[in-house]
Amino acid sequence: MTSLFLRLNSAALATALITLMAIAAGSTHAQERRGKTRISNAGFTITALPLLAARDWGIFNANNLDMEVILMQSALVPAALTQGDIDYQAGVGPASVNATMSGFATRAIWFSSDRISYWLMARPQYKTLESLKQKKVAVTGLGGTVHVAFNMAVEKAGGNPKDFVLVSIGGQQIQQLISLEAGYVDAAVLSPPVTFGAQKKGFNKILDVGAMVEMPGGGLTTLARTIQERPAETKRVIRSLQAAKEEIRKAKPRTIELIIKLLRMDREAANETYDQFITTLSPSGIPTRGRHVDRKVNFNEIADDRLAIEVAKEMGYKIP
Question: Does domain 36-114+216-314 have CATH number 3.40.190.10?
């Protein structure tokens, strides 16, 4: 009996040890998983410049962040955030805000730019918004930032968005310009540097969409849970992006080289794009209570500015 009791206890002890080892291994894996911070971005465009600068200039590393940048379509981001596949989204716009409004517990927590840089460009025979009625207008995606901004700008100009035939052309902005040149569409909503190329080819600027719309042109979005449970890390992410934005503002030659390298522009286009982009930058990065979608919503439903305010104060910005 004693021998059997000892054997049973030995078996139980072995099982317990195996269980503890498995828990420890799982804990170690979780710690390693948390050590790598993941941030998504829809595409390497000019609005992603602070993110790319923070990565390439070592600013994330300087803030004790092992940051991995992942290209991901905006429509996939809310589920990826919720499932823990990514930690942050480098972007604020109608897609992310609409995801919040549809039930995802996400919040905009930092802004890169106070406004967007988009122009409505048309083929040479079209001179006015009125002349484009019932014509095809290219946007990068229905329901996205470009689409919503176009609708808002048209309404502000006294028109009706339903008077235009919107055509969704995904991918890089150059695809819209190619479609415009080929006559597949009559107009397109373009951003720098494609706008400058379109002008040189004789296409007409019909509307300065960005100047007519109160909408951020990039930023940072994350789960409300992340803000609550990991505020120190979240502040380091905000600080990194804000520091990168300030370096962009102060160091034009260095930024031009980054634009040429990462966004694959020639030097003339990079210079023009930089000069346009710099006018849109939000000074402190604190989310503002402008328009974010094509309807009015309560600011606290879609944004949380508390950590951005703390970072701005720590970095010496004057907060009203």
Answer: yes
Q: Answer yes or no: same fold for 36-114+216-314 and 119-212.
A: yes
CB 167 within 8 A of CB 137: yes
**How far, in Å, CA of 247 to CA of 241, rounded?**
10
Q: Hey, CA dihedral for 303, 309, 311, 316, is it positive or negative? A: positive
What are the sequence ranges of the domains in the chain? 36-114+216-314, 119-212
119-212 — its CATH code?
3.40.190.10
Which residues sit opposite 40 in a β-bridge? 70, 89
Task: Give, for all 320 residues of the chain, the pLDDT tens digit.
Answer: 444 333 434 444 443 433 334 434 343 333 334 478 999 998 778 889 999 999 999 999 999 999 999 998 878 899 999 999 999 999 887 777 777 877 889 999 999 998 888 899 999 999 999 999 999 999 987 777 788 889 999 999 999 999 999 998 876 678 889 999 999 999 999 988 888 889 989 999 999 998 888 778 789 999 999 999 999 999 999 999 999 999 999 999 999 999 999 888 889 989 999 998 999 999 999 997 655 454 566 778 889 999 999 999 999 998 87
Q: What is this structure's pTM? A: 0.77
Kindly provide the b/e burial profile for residues 11-24, where b requires at least 16 CB atoms within 10 angstroms of the residue's own CB.
eeeeeeeeeeeeee
- For residues 166 and 186, give the distance between their C-alpha atoms in angstroms, rounded to a whole number: 10
